[in-house]
């Protein structure tokens, strides 16, 4: 019992001695850290407003704001720890050694972060753009350091690791995506009339569905064995890509039929 009391008394004396010797340093370190946190928040808010005033990209704005905020907090933390008389040199050496091992173990993750940094700084695309990469396409919803999130017309979310974007062939079509369709008409029909009918159908759709800035292209693609193949290319809003394509195809079919323009089929399919 006496030994336990002696141990408790020693521990108590150590605590009292620590607060007697370091109380002012500890209070000073806490005050410095609180003030630093307050300054970091204020400076980051000012940087955010400056970026928004200059109409900087949302993703780049978040990145710059976070870098500024954490840089100030880390600097203040170093000053606060130094106030306690603690030297950071051994810790820095230890962090360096640990970072080397972590870097080797997390090569894939770090490559994603490096690629994300390249995307944020280089800005090959921004939030709201339509991109096609690595066999998938969608509207960019969010760009993070590790990955980029796309959304599709079906409401799906596609998460692409950033290392699969940088270094790959990337197509950025902004708000729209091109639709390419081929329609065959009978050789007895007039291609000029068919082209005019198709243009008329495309012009009926609103600009929010089909882009008016990039004009639709309609013309003869090739002369097939059984038909004159007319190709049409137009820009549909990505969020309505398939829905627009289906509606346009149906309207074109009905319009050609109303104008007595035949869509032929191979004659060998006709039973003799």
Task: Tell me what the structure shows.
- This protein is α+β, with helices and mostly antiparallel strands.
- The protein has six helices and eight strands.
- The chain has a five-stranded antiparallel sheet with strand order 4-3-2-1-5. A three-stranded antiparallel sheet has the order 6-8-7.
- The longest helix is centred in the N-terminal third of the chain and has 52 residues.
- 19% of the residues are buried.
* Structural class by sheet pairing and helices: alpha+beta
Distance between the termini: 112 Å
Which CATH class of the largest domain? Alpha Beta
Strand content: 15-25%
Quaternary structure type: single chain
Number of strands: 8
- N-to-C SSE series? HHHHEEEEEEHEEH
Give the count of structural domains.
3
Q: What is the overall pLDDT average?
A: 83
Level of helix content? 40-55%
């Amino acid at each position: 019992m006496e030994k336990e009391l002696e141990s408790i008394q020693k521990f108590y004396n150590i605590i009292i001695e620590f607060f007697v010797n370091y109380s002012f340093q500890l209070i000073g370190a806490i005050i410095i850290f609180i003030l630093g946190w307050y300054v970091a928040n204020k400076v980051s808010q000012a940087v955010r407003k400056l970026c928004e005033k200059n109409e900087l990209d949302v993703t780049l704005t978040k990145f710059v704001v976070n870098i500024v905020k954490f840089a100030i907090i880390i600097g203040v933390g170093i000053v606060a720890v130094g106030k306690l008389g603690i030297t950071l040199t051994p810790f820095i050496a230890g962090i360096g050694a640990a970072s080397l091992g972590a870097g080797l173990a997390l090569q894939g993750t770090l490559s994603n972060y490096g690629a994300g940094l390249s995307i944020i700084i280089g800005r090959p695309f921004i939030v709201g753009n339509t991109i096609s990469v690595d066999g998938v396409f969608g509207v960019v919803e969010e760009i993070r350091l590790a990955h980029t999130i796309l959304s599709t017309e079906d409401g799906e979310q596609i998460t692409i690791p950033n290392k699969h974007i940088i270094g790959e062939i990337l197509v950025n079509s902004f708000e729209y995506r091109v639709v390419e369709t081929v329609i065959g008409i009978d050789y007895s029909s007039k291609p000029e009339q068919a082209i005019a009918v198709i243009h008329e159908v495309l012009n009926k759709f609103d600009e929010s569905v089909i882009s008016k800035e990039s004009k639709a292209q309609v013309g003869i693609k090739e002369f097939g064995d059984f038909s004159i193949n007319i190709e049409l290319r137009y820009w549909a809003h990505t969020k309505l890509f398939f829905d627009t394509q289906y509606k346009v195809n149906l309207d074109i079919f009905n319009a050609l039929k109303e104008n007595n323009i035949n869509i032929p089929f191979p004659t060998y399919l006709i039973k003799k």
